[in-house]
Task: inverse folding
């Protein structure tokens, strides 16, 4: 049985941060899709159906927390897990277990600059957990 390559959609308006994060995940074997804003994120999410979306909380055009509500209400994207990467959390407070509550759901969050080993491990676990839930 051939394993399906894991996919991730990175949503960040900072091209340097996005490029570094994309390289980390590509080196770990992921297919990486990129988006710079909410509009591009929605387009990429619908077209590519990534296993997970890693997105910033703050965009020049809006708030990632509000945008996640739209993603979760859209039948084409509602099932895609989301993890936040953000400057709104102090890196010294990031123990790898941070949660951002939005509505009835809770989303994992990581402070920028990102601690890549912890982030990659969390993303891997979240994708595996999500894939296993879909099989049941």
Result:
């Amino acid at each position: 049985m051939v394993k399906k390559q894991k996919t991730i959609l990175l949503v960040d308006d900072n091209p340097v941060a996005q490029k570094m994060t994309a390289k980390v995940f590509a080196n770990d074997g992921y297919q990486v899709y990129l988006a710079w804003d909410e509009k591009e994120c929605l387009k990429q999410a619908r077209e590519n159906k990534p296993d997970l979306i890693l997105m910033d909380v703050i965009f020049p055009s809006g708030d990632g927390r509000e945008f996640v509500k739209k993603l979760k209400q859209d039948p084409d994207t509602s099932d895609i897990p989301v993890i936040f990467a953000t400057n709104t959390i102090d890196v010294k407070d990031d123990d790898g277990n941070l949660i951002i509550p939005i509505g009835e759901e809770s989303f994992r969050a990581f402070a920028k600059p990102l601690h890549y080993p912890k982030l990659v491990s969390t993303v891997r676990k979240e994708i595996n957990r999500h894939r296993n839930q879909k099989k049941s």
In short: The mean pLDDT is 91. The chain is about 40% helix and 25% strand. Residues 116-135 form the longest helix (20 residues).
